Amino acid sequence: CKLCRRVEADPDICGRKCEHQGICAHEFCLFFANGLYREDMRDGVPFEHVRRKIKQAKQKNCFVCGKRRASITCRGMGCDRSFHLPCAAEAGCITQYFPQYRSFCWEHRPEQTVEATPEENTVCIICLVPVEEKKTYGTMVCPACKRTWFHRHCIQNQAIQAGHRCFCCPGCHNEYRFRAEMLTMGIRIPRLPAWESPRAYSALSERHSYCDGGWSLCPGGTEQPEAEGPWQLLLSSSCTAEGTHRRCSALLDSTESWEYDGC
Ligand SMILES: [Zn+2]
Ligand SMILES: [Zn+2]
Ligand SMILES: [Zn+2]
Ligand SMILES: [Zn+2]
Ligand SMILES: [Zn+2]
Ligand SMILES: [Zn+2]
Ligand SMILES: [Zn+2]
């Protein structure tokens, strides 16, 4: 991959590898690369644009592995930390798998806002191994029931298995609030469950038969990873593969649901 410089990378994080005109890159390395994500990526990637971005990224060093060509930079105000997509989790960075495909370093990443602390000896509902004694990058809680605790990697794994139609809190089965919060916290929820996903790589120049980036798009960006207010992510109540920010769909800050009609 021209962007993350890895031959083998976790497809759950980086997506499929695509090749076009001699450029080989992972699907999500492209989506997250600084300034690369555009609305027209729904119909394929503009490759002239990609070439230019790869040149620019050459200069930057990854603050995690130290190697060059770190194409993702933290959106925190004035922050210049850059990294490769496969290096993100190692350093506690959050990458949000929905437009505008924003990324944050460990210092500027969004935190879960729910007031909750695990009781003593609380275990992860998925792997049954104890969680940490408070909310952290690796220990997360359901924002709806506030008592279902799990590890980040365990819930990520579950999201990959379930896909957007079936992913919910493993404790209370809340879907709506749970999915929006997990996406904001950097959990990738693929459109299709693992057993339905196409295994074959497709050229990026072709329209994807399915596309994880196929959200209704937000015209406005923001540097704030907010979990509340105008920049809170709302998922469509009819299809949670679609989402918007309150501000981008001109919704009031008090609006709790939104319906996408293009699905
Ligand atoms: Zn890559
Ligand atoms: Zn790196
Ligand atoms: Zn930062
Ligand atoms: Zn676990
Ligand atoms: Zn729950
Ligand atoms: Zn938006
Ligand atoms: Zn749908």
Structural features, described:
- The structure is a single chain.
- With 263 residues, the chain is an alpha+beta fold.
- The protein has three domains: 1-109 and 196-214, Herpes Virus-1, CATH 3.30.40.10; 111-184, Herpes Virus-1 (2-Layer Sandwich); 215-263, Herpes Virus-1.
- It has five helices and ten strands.
- The chain has helices spanning 11-14, 27-32, 47-57, 152-162, 176-184; strands at residues 17-20, 23-26, 72-73, 82-83, 94-95, 103-104, 139-141, 149-151, 233-235, 243-245.
- The protein has a two-stranded antiparallel ribbon. Strands 3-4 form a two-stranded antiparallel ribbon.
- The two termini are 32 Å apart.
- The structure holds zinc ion (7 copies).
- Residues 124, 126-127, 129, 150-151, 154 line the site of one zinc ion (ZN).
- GO terms for molecular function: zinc ion binding.
- It comes from Buceros rhinoceros silvestris.
- This is PHD finger protein 7.
Number of helices: 5
Number of strands: 10
The top level CATH class name of the largest domain? Alpha Beta
- Gyration radius (Cα, Å) is 18 Å
Domain unit count: 3
Percentage of residues assigned to helices: 10-25%
SSE string: HEEHHEEEEEEHHEE
Bound molecules: zinc ion
In CATH terms, what is the fold-level topology of the largest domain?
A: Herpes Virus-1
Strands of the widest sheet, in order across it, are: 1-2
Outline: globular
- Strand % is 5-15%
Biggest sheet details: 2 strands, antiparallel
CATH architecture of the largest domain: 2-Layer Sandwich
Please name the fourth-level CATH homologous superfamily of the largest domain.
Answer: Zinc/RING finger domain, C3HC4 (zinc finger)
Distance between the termini: 32 Å
InterPro entries: EPHD (IPR034732), PHD-type_Zinc_Finger (IPR051188), PHD_PHF7/G2E3-like (IPR059102), Znf_FYVE_PHD (IPR011011), Znf_PHD (IPR001965), Znf_RING (IPR001841), Znf_RING/FYVE/PHD (IPR013083)
Domain PHD-type: 1-109
Keywords: Metal-binding, Zinc, Zinc-finger
Protein name: PHD finger protein 7
